[in-house]
Specification:
This protein is α+β, with helices and mostly antiparallel strands. It folds into 4 domains: 10-72 and 121-204, Vaccinia Virus protein VP39 (Rossmann fold, 3-Layer(aba) Sandwich); 83-113, no CATH class; 233-364; 372-478, Immunoglobulins (Immunoglobulin-like), CATH 2.60.40. It has helices spanning 20-31, 83-88, 144-154, 170-177, 189-200, 233-238, 241-251, 283-295, 312-322, 335-340, 354-364, 397-402, and strands spanning 10-15, 36-43, 58-65, 91-92, 98-103, 109-113, 123-125, 160-163, 181-184, 255-256, 265-267, 270-274, 300-305, 326-331, 372-380, 383-392, 413-419, 431-434, 445-449, 454-464, 469-478. Strand 15 and strand 16 form a beta hairpin.
Length: 479
């Protein structure tokens, strides 16, 4: 991390009282004790009244500089004066500036103007966010006012601000509003989804430069990309296919099978097939699984996949049904999801002890069944339309809790986006619709005008309210 930081850069580390002191020792080793600038106390208040300890109403933020060249712009983060100070500067000139009149020894008087505010010290009294427009219902969310002080004090417009545990996206949203470039990352797909929606809806949030906090920001977020990176384990797995299959079968709590070409395991009455690492599950692959099931008296099968060819969902189930096989398409959770459940264990997943996989990891890693997504597309001239006509999730305990409140199954969509000219590699978000608190429904139809004729692929990406992705690609011909 130190090598990636600019020579005049700063690092702010926030952790709660459980581990903050341990991290302080590590930070001294990495950045040097001489570059430790402040232990900042963030005091946030609250109403809890414990019986066995003093109420915990603050956290600690460690502030380190990269080098002696690191600057701190304290004049940008001045705080309001106390009532006592305002009483001393009890005059206001025609420009609205406060001043006081001091008597000099020679009997004359001197006008002394107050600065715009007092210097911030190392104790920051900033309450946790309570305003509905700011609250993201994310447990570790920080107030925008806190990040505003950090970013203004330690960066200039155009600088890069990075938050590698971005959570609800507060750092990125504040950096965007203050004209900084930003990078954010998180292991949690829920965190990424909250952050993405927050940035897309940033024009409806408050303007940080409006001191009264009543003005909206009103500007859309600058274009940004969402990358799924850091899955280095998959490179390791490619060279050890047998170990990879054994690990995935354990994770899915499946008994391994031998002597088959496409059936890797058995879970109760169901045969199990594990899809390839770096390629989507195709119809041809599903067909081979179905044929092997019928030849060996399996009438139920689960096909697990990381990605899916666009035609697999409906056609695969229809094909299996015609052959007397009850087929389920199961989404393998992302590597990051698996890694986030392995805190405290060796992140080289294939080396995780069997008992950890069975007793610990399987509790938290979920294998959702791929949702049913039906799209209706049409083309008139150079304009294409895409409409979600049906969206169904497989029954789960989580779905059962909210099922009675859902009148239209499409209300389970949290976010969906379209790449109108998908090239088979990077998904370009060219249109999106997502739920917000004021309107907890998405639009179900989108339109797009093409500039050139020809055949195009339209890729639709849907994220449900539980954070699971469903993708579908359809081909259209533009005249």
């Amino acid at each position: 991390m130190r090598d990636l930081l600019a020579e005049n850069g700063s690092v702010y580390v926030h952790l709660d009282w459980h581990v903050g002191h341990y991290v302080k020792v590590m930070m001294d080793e990495v950045f040097g004790q001489e570059n430790f600038r402040n232990e900042i106390v963030w005091h946030y208040g609250g109403n809890a009244v414990p019986s066995k300890f003093f109420p915990r109403k603050h956290d600690t933020i460690l502030f380190y500089a990269k080098s002696e060249h690191t600057e701190l712009y304290l004049d940008r983060v001045l705080e309001p004066y106390s009532e006592l100070t305002l009483k001393r500067y009890n005059h206001i000139d025609k420009d609205g500036k406060r001043y006081k009149i001091s008597a000099l020894r020679n009997g004359k008087q001197e006008i002394v103007y107050a600065k715009e505010g007092r210097l911030s010290d190392s104790v920051w009294n900033i309450p946790v966010p309570r305003v509905k427009a700011e609250v993201m219902d994310y447990t570790t969310q920080k107030p925008e006012a806190l990040l505003k002080r950090v970013i203004l004090a330690s960066s200039d417009p155009g600088d890069i601000v990075a938050d590698f545990f971005c959570g609800s996206g507060t750092t990125l949203a504040v950096a965007e509003k203050l004209g900084r470039r930003w990078i954010g990352s998180d292991l949690s797909k829920f965190a990424i989804q909250v952050t993405r929606k927050r940035l897309l809806d940033i024009h409806n949030s408050k303007d940080l430069l409006d001191e009264k906090g009543k003005k909206k920001y009103e500007k859309p977020a600058r274009p940004f990309e969402l990358w799924n990176i850091g899955n280095y384990e998959t490179v390791y797995w490619q060279e050890r296919e047998d170990e990879y299959l054994a690990f995935m079968l354990k994770l899915y709590q499946t008994q391994p099978l031998t002597g088959f070409r496409y059936l890797h395991g058995r879970k109760g009455e169901r045969a199990v097939h594990i899809g390839p690492l770096n390629a989507p599950v195709t119809m041809e692959e599903v067909e081979k699984v179905v044929i092997e099931c019928r030849a060996n008296n399996f009438n139920k099968a689960d096909v697990l996949g990381w990605e899916w060819s666009y035609e697999v969902n409906e056609l695969a189930k229809e094909l299996a049904k015609k052959n007397g096989v009850d087929l389920r398409l199961v989404q393998i959770p992302s590597v990051n999801e698996i890694k986030s459940s392995l805190v405290g264990f060796d992140l080289q997943l294939l080396k995780v002890p069997d008992q950890i996989v069975e007793k610990e990891l399987s509790k938290y890693v979920k294998f959702p069944e791929v949702a049913y997504l039906e799209l209706e597309t049409g083309v008139i001239g150079n304009e294409a339309t895409s409409k979600i006509t049906d969206f169904q999730l497989s029954p789960t305990a989580e779905l059962a809790e909210i099922a009675s409140k859902v009148k239209d199954s499409r209300e389970l969509i949290d976010y969906w986006a379209i790449d109108w000219d998908y090239k088979g590699d990077t998904f370009h978000n060219q249109w999106q619709s997502f739920r917000v608190k004021k309107n907890p429904k998405v639009e179900y139809e989108a339109r797009h005008k093409y500039e050139e004729a020809g055949e195009c692929q339209i890729m639709t990406k849907v994220v449900d309210v539980f954070g699971n992705d469903t993708n579908k690609v359809l081909k259209v011909r533009i005249k």
